[in-house]
Every structure is written in structure tokens, then in C-alpha cells.
Amino acid sequence: MSDLETESLREKCGVFGIFGHPDAAAITALGLHALQHRGQEAAGIVAFDGRQFNSERRHGLVGDHFSNERVIKRLAGSASIGHVRYATTGETVLRNVQPLFAELEGGGFAVAHNGNFTNGLTLRRQLVRDGAICQSTSDTEVILHLVARSRKLRFVERFVESLRQIEGAYALVALTNKKLVGARDPLGIRPLVLGELNGRYILASETCALDIIGARFVRDIENGEVVIISESGIESLKPFAPQPARPCIFEYIYFARPDSVVNGRSVYDVRKRMGAELAAESPAEADVVVPVPDSGVPAALGYSQASGVPFELGIIRNHYVGRTFIQPSQAIREIGVRMKHSANRGVIEGKRVVLIDDSVVRGTTSVKIVQMMRDAGAKEVHFRIACPPITHPDYYGIDTPERDKLLAAQMDLEGMRAYMGADSLAFLSVDGIYRSMGLARRDPVRPQFTDHCFTGDYPTRLTDVLAESSPRQWAMLAEAS
Amino acid sequence: MSDLETESLREKCGVFGIFGHPDAAAITALGLHALQHRGQEAAGIVAFDGRQFNSERRHGLVGDHFSNERVIKRLAGSASIGHVRYATTGETVLRNVQPLFAELEGGGFAVAHNGNFTNGLTLRRQLVRDGAICQSTSDTEVILHLVARSRKLRFVERFVESLRQIEGAYALVALTNKKLVGARDPLGIRPLVLGELNGRYILASETCALDIIGARFVRDIENGEVVIISESGIESLKPFAPQPARPCIFEYIYFARPDSVVNGRSVYDVRKRMGAELAAESPAEADVVVPVPDSGVPAALGYSQASGVPFELGIIRNHYVGRTFIQPSQAIREIGVRMKHSANRGVIEGKRVVLIDDSVVRGTTSVKIVQMMRDAGAKEVHFRIACPPITHPDYYGIDTPERDKLLAAQMDLEGMRAYMGADSLAFLSVDGIYRSMGLARRDPVRPQFTDHCFTGDYPTRLTDVLAESSPRQWAMLAEAS
Amino acid sequence: MSDLETESLREKCGVFGIFGHPDAAAITALGLHALQHRGQEAAGIVAFDGRQFNSERRHGLVGDHFSNERVIKRLAGSASIGHVRYATTGETVLRNVQPLFAELEGGGFAVAHNGNFTNGLTLRRQLVRDGAICQSTSDTEVILHLVARSRKLRFVERFVESLRQIEGAYALVALTNKKLVGARDPLGIRPLVLGELNGRYILASETCALDIIGARFVRDIENGEVVIISESGIESLKPFAPQPARPCIFEYIYFARPDSVVNGRSVYDVRKRMGAELAAESPAEADVVVPVPDSGVPAALGYSQASGVPFELGIIRNHYVGRTFIQPSQAIREIGVRMKHSANRGVIEGKRVVLIDDSVVRGTTSVKIVQMMRDAGAKEVHFRIACPPITHPDYYGIDTPERDKLLAAQMDLEGMRAYMGADSLAFLSVDGIYRSMGLARRDPVRPQFTDHCFTGDYPTRLTDVLAESSPRQWAMLAEAS
Amino acid sequence: MSDLETESLREKCGVFGIFGHPDAAAITALGLHALQHRGQEAAGIVAFDGRQFNSERRHGLVGDHFSNERVIKRLAGSASIGHVRYATTGETVLRNVQPLFAELEGGGFAVAHNGNFTNGLTLRRQLVRDGAICQSTSDTEVILHLVARSRKLRFVERFVESLRQIEGAYALVALTNKKLVGARDPLGIRPLVLGELNGRYILASETCALDIIGARFVRDIENGEVVIISESGIESLKPFAPQPARPCIFEYIYFARPDSVVNGRSVYDVRKRMGAELAAESPAEADVVVPVPDSGVPAALGYSQASGVPFELGIIRNHYVGRTFIQPSQAIREIGVRMKHSANRGVIEGKRVVLIDDSVVRGTTSVKIVQMMRDAGAKEVHFRIACPPITHPDYYGIDTPERDKLLAAQMDLEGMRAYMGADSLAFLSVDGIYRSMGLARRDPVRPQFTDHCFTGDYPTRLTDVLAESSPRQWAMLAEAS
User: Fold this and answer.
1) Where does this protein hold Mg(2+) (chains A, B, C, D) (predicted)?
2) Which residues of D touch C480 (CB under 8 A)?
3) How many Å apart are CA D198 and CA D214, to the nearest integer?
4) In this structure, is residue C470 part of a structural domain?
5) Range 63-102 of D in CB contact (< 8 A) with A
6) For C61, left (φ over 0), alpha (ψ -120 to 50), or beta?
């Protein structure tokens, strides 16, 4: 998948939290900035200043609002959590921007979430039936209501009781007037790491958010673990029955930043190895290896180094894209892909090109990129994809299209090759991807990663999907509110 | 009180609703525009289109947003309610802009409110204790939660059950997917009228909102009455024990538009009679009667006609004021009042002036206006106020300062006269104001109007005021959320 | 003409200047605020700080931008001129917002203008032919170019040389790095007054701009006079052949603020006398005198006092109007006029009404106001206009419609009455208006006022109008630039 | 120079023009978007619709405004020119955004400029002395005035006469109501190419602007050539004495997009060869070649391929940077460079790193990047710069700091190495850069490129620099206007 297809496969969020630092909000802003690739449409920070909770939530990039001194000053306090996310525009949905906050019996409670609850709508329906008023359409609000209604005494107990009712994937950070809490779902699908800066603890979706502030990586939060950070230090709970971790493999393929270390593995390194495995599995007689920028670059380097075929920047990315321009109506071939990418003709012309992309979702851009290579004079185009065919939608916080929009769910390999117009097409095998992770192969009984997009093997129940009314209908109803 | 003092005495809201009209939102926008004097800081409309509820809420004037075709189109539907109000700026408080809406068990429910619940904070505390999450700091949200939690079957029953728990003043309009509901508190403190346009029913705070759309005035909603408007017509409930009405007298003195008819009386007419009563009670040897514009004009006309002293526009209002300008630091006498008002010297110079204002709250502007008359060469300034001294704060939806900021609570008549620098000062008597209403006098046992600002005689319990924690502290906590 | 017709008759500008005051820009902002009625669409201030000229020009009201401390701080300096004007939106026309400024040989030169040059386009054409580049479409820029091209040594000489080439009406204020200059056209058509604040001189379009800052009125700048204000005091030049003044009569009828004193006469006073003359010329058997607010109020008071028919606020103005609302498409009679005005039914119903307006331009609103009186139950409507029929367009800085849009140029009195639907209609006579000014009658040989709108007697040559290409075409070309 | 230093070395502009296409403005917007790297702070388009010129000029990116359908519709016409540039904010300087336009005798004239006139201020002074009024501070306006004042009959003659008075570097596109004109300075310092789309001619700064719209590259405009494009085709003038071309070498080093072909050479190719020459001149015992992204990537690839040391993405760029964040005040080492770049630790740790950058201006970022490598655990850091030391400022349209801010003008090689903290430092030699261009060496008598930044050998007179008053003072005066 090239960056052109960001509309079809998006991480939904990134989270950050810090406890005990006088510049908590400024540091949170920097951390969120480093996590910006996980969500560009809205950002929010809640800080607690010892007396009250201060909240700022905005549409746009972190730097658009949270680089501003006035905003940071309003976010006084030494404990803070933050969130970046996708969202659409308008008043109605600013309510959906996280962290969510509520004044509950016992004090304020803020929470930010990366992931998706597979029984979120089912829980929401029960809550509304019991007289709850939901202001947002995000499943994160469900946690707020569960905590609000819990009859337990302490916030941590109320929070854990709430987690027990939830199915799906989550990396959560929460803030009370005394504690910063982090939680990762029982399978550890979404990432969450613990860092430390001059003795103060930090929680973040990725290590790159620690690097930007010069913090030290301590460890990954474990699957099913709840950590409680307070004046008296850090405490760890394991409220769920123990089971092996099964993190989402897409963090390595596409979402995480290449300089992050996720679950102990360098993302850049894994991506290069995916390229190398791909070269071993599907070599090509070629003159140049060309990445689809920017996400295809590490795999292309790996492919080049393993195959000896030289790596060249055969596609140049225009860094200034954002909006869609008016297309001239006359006499111009479709511009689309050229707004963002252009062929570096000198490198392509007369060459046999191995084109490397990290993944293919709908395939519409692949067609255009291959055509762009042809237009630039490529003699042959061998398309290599550094992951297996995506055949199943995600329900754990990645915004995939429905099954009938997934190219690999609709066509076989030859069909896809013909559709894209490539001379050859190959995907990395499922075992190839596990080898890139340093494993011998996928364990079919206890798969080491969440990989249902390639295998259809969903790691949890899909309660909402199975429920009578489809989630899509419910979402519309909720949105209407 | 001149318009210069609008910071000290403000009506909190105006409401409007219509059922069964294809242009419901456009008509609601017009109605709210006519009610703009009741609240200039925010406005909102919710419409139901047979399938879903559509909501638009904005800071600013009705005309700033709701004159826009795109906004009105988004508010599709044949039933609609709207609200104008005061509010401050920023994200946190857009949540406070009404109508409030929630998707409840049984369908959506929207509500808009003019008034104030004297037990609002007490109810809110109970709700939070029971696990409710309050998103706004407005007491209107309390109704939503009470309705959400009611175990009654039908919305109207749930609404009535909620009203029974509420103390204070309210004129409410609510919208469900089947009905438009209106309610006025047991004493009818805040106004609400029923209108009719081509067979469709309308609810509005004042008759001027009917006039703008050419609708017919049907009748006032009675004190303690709930009206339910649906496809099958209009129905009236009286869920409270019957008692005499006791409407707020300030609607006549200051809030209502002069062309409105409130509880059967023309506001313009009442104001002129207040001026005439004032002339009878406190005549003055003078050459001209000068109103403090614009709210003092009708009383000044009444005073002039009763006394025979000619009416002149001795103070000219600058219509373009809004903001406070930087004051030059050097060599200029305080500009303040001149930003908005200026003396019409030709009318004042060498004259004995009777200056008429509708009311005095803090008195700071009165001082400046009297000085302005002196500067323009007035020989004598006789200040006449067309209502009694304001000695007590309001708790029913009027934003009065606290007691120690009320001039008449701090000084006697001579003290006030000296403070203002007038040659003479007189207020209309309490009985004078009742006479202006066409009554013989105030009935001390069953006062015909809510007049506690002059008398200290509050018509309901003040539960929140009496509660341990002061409302102000609670408001801050809530605002923090 | 009611305020509803402001689209058809607008003053184009107001000017202000001050020399030698440390808060020059702040004072200029206040002065412009007091002149806001002369132009609401854009405002600008240029100040000289001893080293450089600082300029801020903005669309919108003075208070929207120039009440801001940062803006005023950017306008450092002890000499300053300012301007309010009409203009449309967008980038192209911000160039037209005054004061205009240019860095010329010898130093910077800023100028602001109220009026219109009747040979402005002719001069512009000559300048362009000689290689000048015009950035704005305002005729004010012509002065800049004439000054820039003058071969005289001193700025004042260059300015006077430029004025000699100009025909038409103007009140100009100009600023160099040493002087503040004011000029009024040879007939004194547009107003300009001299004031004084603690020994510093001020120039302003009207005295109300002196009042707001507590400055003292010194005298009117004379027709054909140029005043030069500098460190060494004030100097007066009379560069034109002497002739009697002939100020614009419309300042009294409509433009000037009622509390201003224009050419020695109180505007409020003149307006009241116009009402009194009207009562004498065209009495009516009636119960109430009702002004069309706000501009008809003084004349109505005069009519009432002269006739003994009581004055009542029969029409209430909504102060919050600005934009045009979407009109509901169904079942509602045209709303138009009701957005801004509403009938005060209690005063109108069953009454014989004398309706007073200050003028009639297109007459479209008059029709609606009469109808509004009928709808409110008026028994009879006698329409009285406190000036003569407007039959000719203006070319001196008032934005009148072309002749075929002027009602009185298209119909006779009975035609107009029938069109408006009034029971009777009368205009003040031309001599009546002169009597209101304290004169016996209009001198047909040397008319004492510029009154061509009523008489067709234009006081200067209309060079551009007579030129081959019409001004309108040129304006379009220029606008395109 | 890394992208972090864009504040110190900036191309000033890019230009585009098309004649005879019904979608001229939409195509111009696309072309400007492809040229966005040449100027990100403002953009403008002027189009001629056969009747009038339409202009839109805005601060911000092309995509921020010119992707909008309404804006493009306002730019009707089949001939259009556009411009991207740097500029600061505020009203005053929107006047500087190009294309500039004026209505001249004979019709409208629009012009857009990339480059700088070395006698621009001198010419401006003469023009002001002769009565010209300059609205902008850009030297482009000088052309407008020269054309306006020319006594020649035809626009092309007037334009050529103007060019004869100008010294310095320029690539100009101009639009009249009949013609599109392009001109390149006598030495061809700034680039300009001719393209063709379905028979319609296009002018653009770089070929990448042709590629985006699928246009064909025809040829470079020659040094000293003026091309006139009209309904009757294309015509070429050579109004200057012939001399060899001497294009700016910095287009290859930094400015042009890697996929552009400038003066017949692929930019990407030249950059890779610079890296290869650098590897030959200054090899290093190392484990990885790491580019400073993004501009150092091609040279690093060239270095890696020539040296056999593997290429790795050792620095990851954050694509979402824009603003400067508030820096936490406590306990955090300076964040600066980490906002934009972060070390990819897995690639760096324990390695001997060859760090490749395209150039060094002030050197402040180089220090930080070297430190970042150290912090990430690099064993050795060998810094290699793919161009010679920059010792002299530019006066031809590149925004260089003054001499005393140029690191290489202040220190020798060892001094720079020590300052940067690198283990070794080497720059490409001047002859090395010429070899990268495919030449044997620099011809010291007739240098084949404009290379004064490295050699001090300025290709034209520097009239303004030599003039009495420094350009900086003049600029301030002008800016003040």
C-alpha cells in the first residue's frame, strides 16, 4: 500500500501519558507529535493540576494547536494524558475527540484509547437501556460509563471491573486525580510501552515518542497488564487469566514508525527483512529496485541488498500534498497519483523495474503506479508486495474497507497481476512474514501474531458483528445523536 | 439600567418550537432572531426529519449562522426547537449551548430551557452519585438525565415525572420523534406563548417571535401547564397542584421586547404607564424629559405625556458598539460611556433635565450619564427610575450581580442621589409598578408577580442556595469537566 | 428613507486626523468609531512614528480591529490619520481601503478622502497614459499620483498643485513626515471640522468625533481652505478663487449624526424643524405620529410637537439584524421588512397614523412599511417625508442609484401615493427645507446648499459623466486590475 | 544542508504559464503545486478571459487555496501565469505576492519572476524620483513600471526595452491580453523550460511541472532569450549580445526536484554523481552510509554505490513538522532537531557512520545531527558534504545569510570538523562538482556555471551592493510603506 491509499488502511490512534513532571502537557504534546503518523485528524490533552482537570481537544495536527504557548499554559499540571486520532469535521464530532473526561462520584476521570472494542455497541445499547446518556459515538465513552456506574470504591477497581466487560483490542491510558493508569488488552494486540524520564514514568504507543523527549525505554506493557503510576511509584496488575501475547502484525508492516522498537523488534529491521524474504521467495531479473515511497523504502532496501539489484528512487514524492485539486476537464490524462508521486524518468526509462510496496488494499493505486512506470519508459515492471494478500477486514482499530473492497478477496494472483498491468506480481508468504519476525513459521494452533487480515483467524469474539443489527446501522444512529 | 449595564442584568434565554411545518428550521431561525434580545451569545436548533435528529449549535448571533442556507438544509425536518442564550467562549462551553439532545432508550430527546432550577445542583449531585456522566454545566442537562432514568413508558410521562423533581423557574420546549412539548413552571415565572401558523402550532418565549413569521397568537401557556403537540393536535396537562400565577415582573421592566404582549399586557403600554406613574409620584420642575436609550424611551414618553414636559433625544446612541477600545493613556478624560452614548448638547445645554432610566443595578453607569448631562451644560439633572430599587439578587434565570454589588442594597435614596451626582433622584414605588400593571396594589399575601428583586419575597424554595456547598464552587468543578 | 434602504443611499466615507499626541492612533480609532455611521465596511489608520509610516487597513467595523491593543501598538507615532468607508469583500479591494500611502521622493505621503472627484476617471486615464500604475480603483489614488509627479519642492505645494487639477467634492486629510494637512473643496460640499485637545489639533468629518474624545470644537474648515498643522502650529491657505460655500444638504437630512453640529447648525435641531415645517405644510387629521426608526425619529418629534398629535414608537427596530435569512418557502407572507422592524400593534390598531420618514429613494421599503401599518390595524396611514422628492443622482460621494431607480424620478405624487398604498402622501418642499435651515428660501441664483438631488442643479462640472466612455465601464476595467 | 536549515538557504520562486487552454488556471495550479518546493509561503495566479484579467494571490500553499473550485472558477480564461514564493505574513506584504498586475496604457500586463535584479533598488530609486508609486517591495514591480513608462508601441518592445535596463538573474513569465511571454537572463542563471500539451505551449521553472500535467518537454529557454507565445504560435527574440550560458549550480545541489531535468541534465543523476565523486575524493572506513533526509538521499546513494558501504535510513524524518513547539523547561535536553528528525538507533548503534548532507550553510544543524548520531551509539561519524564550502552570499534569488553567518567563511576545514564534533569532515571539491556535471573541470576563464557561493566569482555587476546606501536600509524603508 502506498501513501496514496491512506484512505483505505488507517491506524485509528496513538496515546501518551506522563506522571509527575512539571511540564507534563508540553511533554505530552511532543510525544503526540512523534505519534502523529498514528492519527492526523484530531488531537487532545487532559492535564490535572492538583485541583482540577484541564482539557483541550482540537481537529488538526498536534503542531497546529498544541505548539502554542497559550494552549499549553491552559493545560497546567504535572500529570497528563494525550491522544491523536482520525475523525471527521464539524461540531458533532469534536465530542469524539479524546481524551474523554467526566466528573464522576469520587473525582474526575479521563481516558484515551487506541484500539476497538468488538462488543462496544452491545455494551452501549445496554447502557442506554439503563438510562445512560452517550455524548460521543466512540467506544471509549463506554469505559467512562462503566467506570461511572461501577459500585467499587477505588478508581482502579472500577476501571478493572470495566475492562472485564470489554472484548477486543485496546491500549488505554487513564488519568485520575491521583494516578496515571495504563492497560493493554489480554492479547496485547495494540502496542503500549513504558518509559522513564528523570525518574518520572511515561506511557506511549511507540518508542519513538520516548526518543523525541530523550526518555529511556523501560519495557513493553505486557498483554493483559494494568499498570498504576502514582506518587508511590509503579504497580502492576494482571486481572485476566494468563495467555500468550498475540500482537498485531500490521504495526510492523505499515503503522509503526521505522525507528520504533515494537515488542522488542526494530520496525525498520523487520521491514528490511520482509524485503529480503521477498527477494528470496520471489526474485526477479531486473535492473533496478524502486520503492513506492515512503512506506516501501525499507523493504525495497532489504530486497536490493538481498538480491544485489541496485536500489533507486524511481518515484519522487511531493511533500506538499494534502488536498485534491480541481482536475482540468480537457485534454489531460487523469492526474490523480501524480499529485503526490512522480516518476524519476532517468532511473526508469528502458529498465526492468522491481517495484516494492508494503501492502495492497484496494489496489486502485497499484494500477496507477504501474502505469506511471510504463509511462516513464519501464521495459518491465515486476511488482513485489512485502506482505501477504489482505483478504479479511480488521475489527481491532484499523480502518479497513469491507471485504468486497479488498482486492485480494476478489481476485486470485493472476487476476490481480492482470488488473495492475504488471509483468509479474508476488506477495510475501505468511510464513515469510513470520520468518521476517525471526520465527521459524506461523504456529497454526497458537499463532504468535494477530494476522487475521491475511488468514481470517480472528483472535477474539466479534460480538457486535454477530449481533442482530449490524454495527454500521448502529454507528449511524449514534452519529445522529 | 441603561444598555451600558447589560453586563449586570441579563435574561438568560429564549425558546422557540414548531411542529408540522416543512420549513421548521427556517421558521425557528426567524423566531429566534426575533428573540435575540433574550440572549446574544449562542444559539442552537434541533430538528427531527422523521428518521433522525439534526442539531446545530453555535456561538454568536442567530443571523451569524442560521441565516445560512447550508446550515438550514442540514436541519431538515418538519418539527424543530431552538434556543438563544448567553455563554462564554471556547470548546468546553459549546457543550452548554442548547437545545441539548440525547439518544435515549425509546428514541431521541431534545430540550431547550429558559429559567433556572433552584435545586439544579442538588439534583446534579445525586445523578453523578448514581453514575450519570454530565457533559454540560447547564441545569438543562439535569432534565435529560431525569428523563433518561425514568422507568415510565412514554416520553411525556417520563418528562412529567422529571418536572415533579424540579424546583424553580422554567419555560421548556422539548422534542421527541413524535411530539413537541412545552412546559411552564407552577408559578409561570418565565413566559411561554402558544401561536399558530396555518394550522401548525408554535411555542415561543414572546409574541414578537410570532409576529415576525406572521403567526397568530393563540394564548399564553398557563402556569404549571404542559402542552403536547403532535399529529393528533394539542393536548394540555396540569400535573401540579393548582395555584395562582406569579409571573416575573422584570419581563415588563426590561427584558421583553416593547412590541410583545406578555401575559395579556402590552409591554410598551406598561412601560409608558410606569413613566406616567413615576411622573405622578415624583414630578420635577424641568424643561426636557430625556430617556437613557434605548430601554428608557417608553417610560420617558409616558413621563413626558403625563407631565407635559417635552420629550427630547438628549442622548444619542452609537449603534456600532461592541468591543472595548484601548483607552489613550494621556490627557483624555475617561471615555467609557461615550463609546456607546453621547450627549446631544443642543437639547441639554442650559436646561433642567428629567433623565429617565428603566432601572438601576450597580449604578456605575448612572454616575457617568449624569456627569455627561452636566458636561453638556444641563442646569439641573433630575433622575427618575421607572422601577423600585433593586435590593435582592434573582435565582430564576436573570443574571444579577450578588447583593453587595447592588447599589440599592448598599445605600439609601439620598446616598444614591449623592453618589450619582443628581439634583434629585426618585424610583417608582412597588405599588406604582403594580398600578402600571392595572392593579390597585401589590397583594402582600399572594403577590400577583414575582418581584423579589424589589421585595426579597422569593416565590420558591432556594434549595441549592441553602445547601452546604455553595453553587459557585459547584459550578467551578463542573466547568472544569 | 428608512434604515432598511441603506443599500440605496450611503455616505461613502468619514475622515479623522490628529497631530502631536502620543496616543495618536488610539485617539484616531475612537474618532473613527464615532464616525462609523459614515462607513461600516472598512477602516484604516496610518501613523508616523518619526521614522516610518505604519499602516493598518481592514474590512469590518473600527471596533472589530482597531480596539485591539496589538493593532494600536503597531500604529506607533504621534501623528495619525484614519478613514472609514464602504467597500466590498476580497483581496482585490483591500487595496482600496484608505488611507492610501506611498513612499515618494522626499518621504512618505498618506491621504484619506471623503467625497468624489467628478473628473477622477479622466485624470486617471491621463496618468495611466503617462506611465502611472494604479493599484486601487479609488479616486483617492489619483491624488497620490498627482503629488508624486509634481515637480514642486515642498509637499504642501505639490498637494495644492494636485488639488487645482481636481473637480468635485472632497474633505481630505493627509499626513507627511512633518505635517498633517486638511482640505475642503472650493464649495465645501463635504464637511470637515477643526478641533483641539489639550493644544493638539484634530481634523474630523463631524463634531461627534470630537465629543467622544472630549476635544473642543474650534471651527469648520472653510470651503476651499487648506490647513497645515505642524510642530509650529496651524497655517491656513486659500489656493482657490473665493466663492460662497455650498455644503451638501443631505448631511442634515440623513448622513450626519443627530448630535453633530454641521456648518454651525445642530443636525438634531434641523431635523426637528424639518418635521415641524412638514407639519405646517402638510398637516393630517391623525391620532399618532409614528417615526420610521431610527432616522425618522427627530422629524417625527418635530411633527408631533408642531401638530400636537402624540408621538409614539409604533415601529420597533430589531437591533440584531445584519444578514438576510433564508425565507421559508411555504405558507408565510414575505418577511423582508419584519427582520428589522416590527409593528407595535397596541399603538397602531384602530388609529389614524402619520408615518414620518426622512427620505424616499427607491420606495420599495415604503410600500412594506405602509403595509405593516395596515396589517397592524391602522385605520388610516398618512405618509409624510421630511425632504423633497429625490429626482437626481449624486456624484459627490453619496452612493445613489441611477435615475431610473429613483421613485420620484419615475412617478408623480399621486403615483407614488398609490404605489405605496398610503391614504395620503406629502414631501417637504424645497423651500421648506431651506426654512428648516433658518433661511427664508432657496436662492435660485446662488443656492446656499448643494441640493441637486432635489433640483438637478449640480454645483460643478461633471467631466467624467460627459466623457465618451461611461464611468461604469472604466470602473469595471479598473476593478479587474 | 539538511531540511532543518531551510531557513538559511531558500530558492525564492517558481513560475508557470500556459496559453490557449480552456482550463488554463487549473493547469497552472497543478504546475505550481509541482513547483511548490521552490516557494511555500505564497502563491498567485492571473488569468485573462478575453475581456479582463482575473487575479488571486494568497499566503500559504498552492493546495490550500488553488485546489478550490470557486477560486479556479474566478480565474476564468485560456491564458494564465502563476507564481510560488516566500513571503512573510500580514496585509502589507500580500502586495508582494506575485504575479503582479497593472492596467497600463494599451491594456493589462501581468508578470511573475524568479530571480533577483542586482540593480533593482537603484532602478526603483530612479523611478520614485520620477514620480512612480511603488506598492510592493519586490523588484518585480520595477519591471511593471519600466514597461508602463516605455514609449514603445507594442508590449513586447516595451518589455524588451525594460529588460535591457535590468541586471542580474531572472526567469520571467508575463501575460498581456494577447500574448504569453517568457524571458531568461543573458546568462541563463535561473531555469525556464518550454513545454507543450496538445499543441498548447507552457513555460515553467522545471520539467517536473510538465510531468504532473502530462505535458511534453520541448526545450530549455536559452540564456538571453525572449519567447512570445500567441494565437499565431511561438516566436523567439535574442535581444542581448550573445554569450555563453552560465546557469546556477545550486539548482543541481539543492533546489530543483530530483526528477527534474535542468539544462539537459537529470538532477537525480547529478546528485548521485556528486555522491560518487565525494566517495572517490574522500573515502571513509565505515559500516553504513546515512543520508541527512530528504535532500541528502541521492548523494548518499551515489556514495554508497561507489564505495560499496551499505546505504541505510539511519535518520527518520517526521513528515508532520511545521511549527515550533513549546520546549519543556525542565530536565529535557534540547529537543530542536528531534522535532523533525530522529535517529534510527538499530542502524547506528556501534557503527562507523558516513553521514551525507548536500551542503552546509550556517552549520548549526550539522552540530545537532552529528550529536544525534553519537547519542544513538555511533562509533565514528564521518561527515561528507556533497558540495564545496559555501563562502559567499548569493544575490540572484537565493536567500543566503550574510557572509559572517556562513560557517565556511568563518572557519577552516579542521575548525568546522571540531565545531561539528565529527571524526572526519570533507567537502566535495569545486572540480569534483564540475565532474559531476560531466565536465573535465571548471574553466576559470569562462566558468560553465554560476558558482560564486563557492568561488566568490559573481557573474554580473552588483550595482545595488556597490551603491552608497545598503540594500538592507532601502528594503526597510520600502517595507515601511
Assistant:
1) 295, 357-358
2) 52-54, 103, 108
3) 10
4) no
5) 63-64, 66-69, 72
6) beta
Claim to verify: residue B97 and residue B238 sit in the same structural domain? yes
D279: its cell numbers: 566517495
Widest pairwise Cα distance in chain D: 73
C-alpha cell at D452: 560564486
Is C437 in the D-facing interface, judged by CB distances under 8 Å? no
Final residue in a domain of this structure, among A216, A246, A276? A246
Q: Among D128, D133, D176, D474, which would you mutate to test the C interface (most chain C Cβ atoms within 10 Å of its Cβ)?
A: D133
The reply to whether the predicted model has a pTM over 0.95 is no
Name the residue among A266, A311, A345 with its Cβ closest to that of D301.
A311
Candidates C277, C249, C248; CA nearest to C432 is: C277
Residues 6+ apart with CB under 8 A from D36: A318, A320, D14, D61, D62, D63, D84
D108 inside 8 A of chain C by CB = yes
Domain count of chain B? Answer: 2
Residue D115 vs residues B169, B266, D171, D180, D190: alpha-carbon distances, Å: 72, 74, 6, 19, 6
Nearest to B130 by CA among A106, A122, A177: A106
Interface residue C133 vs chain B (CB under 8 A): no
CB C212 within 8 A of CB B335: yes
Please check whether residue A257 touches D, CB under 8 A: yes
Q: What CATH number does the domain containing C223 carry?
A: 3.60.20.10
DSSP string, A259-313: T-EETTEEHHHHHHHHHHHHHHHS----SEEEE-TTTTHHHHHHHHHHH-PPB--
Residues with pLDDT less than 70, chain B: 1-11, 87-94, 321-324, 329-334, 468-481
For residue C132, give the nearest of D54, D148, D476 by CB distance: D148
Where does residue C88 rank: exposed (0-12), middle (13-18), buried (19+ CB within 10 A)? Answer: exposed
Enter the DSSP assignment of B257: -
C-alpha to C-alpha distances, D8 to A114, D296, D409, D473, nearest whole angstrom: 40, 16, 15, 20
Strands (E) in A367-461, as ranges, are 380-385, 424-427
So what's the ipTM on this one? 0.90
Which domain covers residue B195, as residue numbers? Answer: 3-246
Confidence of residue A478 (pLDDT cuts 50, 70, 90): very low
D63–chain A nearest CA distance, Å: 6
CB-based contacts of D308, cutoff 8 Å, min separation 6: none
Please write the tens of the pLDDT for every residue from C5-22. 433 455 579 999 999 999
Across the interface, whether the CB atoms of C332 and B27 are under 8 A apart is answered: yes
Same domain? D26 vs D125: yes
Which among B55, B103, B131 has CB closest to A149?
Answer: B131
Are residue A229 and residue A311 in the same domain, yes or no? no
Return the closest-CA partner of residue B81 out of B93, B66, B97, B98.
B98
In this structure, the answer to whether residues A315 and A216 fall within a common structural domain is: no
Task: Give the three-class secondary structure for C16.
Answer: strand
Interface test with D, best of A65, A316, A327, A373 (most D CBs within 10 A): A316
Residue A259 lies in a domain: no
- Binding site annotation covers C287? no
Task: For residue range C67-126, list pLDDT tens digits in order.
Answer: 888 999 999 999 999 999 875 433 445 677 899 999 999 999 999 999 999 999 999 999
Residues A315 and A366 placed together within one structural domain of the fold: yes
Contact C326 B298 (CB under 8 A): no
Q: List pLDDT tens digits, range C29-53.
A: 999 999 999 988 899 999 999 999 9
Provide CB contacts within 8 A for D300, sequence distance 6+.
D275, D289, D290, D291, D311, D356
Any idea what DSSP says for residue C106?
T
CA dihedral for B62, B64, B65, B67, sign (positive or negative): positive
